[in-house]
């Protein structure tokens, strides 16, 4: 008697953001040249490279702060190459910046509530009383707890340490419910304790969305990133997991030096 068996296949990673032939010239200077990227759901993807490699330019192209000279960009299967940044953000592609962008004279909760206004249809209803934002408190508290800021809930953002301000910025970014989250040097200027905390947050966030990050801290990249793309002079030098790119002699010479990784 034959016994029926079920073969379980591992689900293939789903590409949610992709670029093909992405290029950007400023006059005769090509800052980005023919870059192909595939960013997958529930993965952390790092974009690394020496200063001037084109990392931030790629971020600006993907989020449409810059228009590419050539190439195409697709988000969730839709071509966004010619769309404006605000439309791309509303589709679920949200980024943070190298410089912390929070409202210093608002509390932690109020910063998150401001960010929650758009997805909850309150961003243009300026005639409503402040009390109308109370409906956002429950979701705001959830986000604050997610990023470990529960104790600082009622503190002014100005009174937070630099690292905690960056954590608050992640919370406000998550308030927009991104499908793809772009983080520009999230660990810059942080102490080791904050780096560990933010690494854990990013790892948790990436369980339900794609994360693309520019990061110079290679220990962080090795710890939390599933895929790494190395840029040099605007071109892709190498791709793969950290173990693979760390052994690539071209990468070691261009970015990591010649010491053993």
TrEMBL record:
It holds the Pfam family BCA_ABC_TP_C. GO terms for cellular component: plasma membrane. Residues 17-258 form the ABC transporter domain. SUPFAM superfamilies: P-loop containing nucleoside triphosphate hydrolases. SMART domains: AAA. Keywords: ATP-binding, Nucleotide-binding, Transport. GO terms for molecular function: ATP binding; ATP hydrolysis activity. Gene3D superfamilies: P-loop containing nucleotide triphosphate hydrolases. PANTHER family: ABC TRANSPORTER ATP-BINDING PROTEIN (PTHR45772:SF3), CONSERVED COMPONENT OF ABC TRANSPORTER FOR NATURAL AMINO ACIDS-RELATED (PTHR45772). This is ATP-binding cassette domain-containing protein. It comes from Endobacterium cereale.
């Amino acid at each position: 008697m034959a016994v029926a068996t079920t073969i379980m296949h591992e689900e293939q990673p789903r590409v949610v953001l992709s670029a093909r032939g992405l290029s950007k010239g400023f006059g005769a200077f090509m800052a980005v040249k023919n870059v192909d990227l595939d960013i997958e759901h529930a993965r952390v993807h790092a974009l690394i490279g020496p200063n001037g490699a084109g990392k931030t330019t790629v971020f600006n192209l993907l989020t449409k702060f810059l228009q590419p000279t050539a190439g195409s960009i697709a988000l969730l299967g839709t071509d966004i190459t010619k769309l404006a940044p605000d439309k791309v953000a509303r589709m679920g592609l949200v980024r943070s910046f190298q410089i912390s962008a929070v409202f210093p004279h608002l509390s932690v909760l109020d910063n998150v509530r401001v960010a929650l206004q758009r997805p909850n249809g309150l961003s243009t209803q300026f005639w409503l009383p402040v009390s109308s934002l109370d409906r956002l408190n429950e979701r705001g508290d959830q986000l604050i707890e997610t990023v470990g800021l529960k104790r600082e809930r009622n503190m002014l953002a100005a009174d937070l340490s630099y690292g905690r301000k960056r954590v608050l910025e992640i919370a406000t970014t998550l308030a927009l419910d991104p499908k793809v989250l772009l983080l520009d040097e999230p660990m810059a200027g942080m102490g080791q304790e904050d780096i560990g905390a933010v690494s854990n947050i990013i790892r948790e966030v990436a369980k339900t969305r794609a994360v693309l990050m520019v990061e110079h801290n290679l220990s962080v990249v090795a710890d939390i990133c599933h895929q790494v793309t190395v840029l040099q002079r605007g071109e892709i030098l190498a791709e793969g997991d950290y173990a693979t790119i760390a052994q690539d002699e071209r990468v070691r010479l261009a970015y990591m030096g010649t010491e053993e990784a």
